[in-house]
């Protein structure tokens, strides 16, 4: 994003301030259009919830060319999918079977052998919980999630990249994490492979949105949003290789085998509901 802005006339004309997802989510819900920022990139479900509550974003005034339909007030900048990841050497050494589903991670053979993330600190965990609830319902999810957490033990991570780091190091044999990270590791020759679970590869997007401050709105913000999308996606695709816009192409290896969408619209309230389910299972 910085390269897109710096190489297209905006160098030294902006300040980037970073926050964790839940921290920035709290700010936009609490502050609305009084937030200091003129432009944000943020998890799309937070933007939807903030718009519903505060009506704080402008409709984008440029053609986006997205492959799917999105609300008028944001357009996606990245997308991330979940998958089961495993260390090929550790699986072999421990004589483990390779799981085909997230539910398989609840099997006793994986005791102390898996790493997952905590939904209270990482949205990566929501990809796992969405898949379970979508497939098995809330009661079935509770039953499975309790066993998964028991198997993970001390390996319930706060960061979305925590599981793959432990799988890379061989501290655990398997985990649930971001699919594109496992694809890249495998391509680089690390003993990493991945499984597209039978419950599905669920997706979370991050989007760009412009704050509506009425007469105090910064006219450059909309231009910068367009600049980031039109000039930043090519480089972003190297890290987040999921096509979102017309004309974008990704290698076959980056196309998940079982893409799915959750049956309900993703909102902050739904996230909180799923966080409560997760807490019950610990």
Automatic annotation (TrEMBL):
Keywords, comma-separated and alphabetical: Signal, Transport
InterPro entries, A to Z: SBP_1_CS
PROSITE patterns xrefs: SBP_BACTERIAL_1
The keyword Cell membrane belongs to this UniProt entry's keyword annotation: no
Entry's Gene Ontology molecular function annotations: thiamine binding; thiamine pyrophosphate binding
GO terms classed as biological process: thiamine transport; transmembrane transport
Gene Ontology terms: cellular component: outer membrane-bounded periplasmic space
SUPFAM superfamilies linked to this entry: Periplasmic binding protein-like II
Cited Pfam families: SBP_bac_6 (PF13343)
Family: Belongs to the bacterial solute-binding protein 1 family.
Protein name per UniProt: ABC-type thiamine transport system, periplasmic component
Lineage, uppermost ranks: Bacteria, Bacillati, Bacillota, Tissierellia, Tissierellales
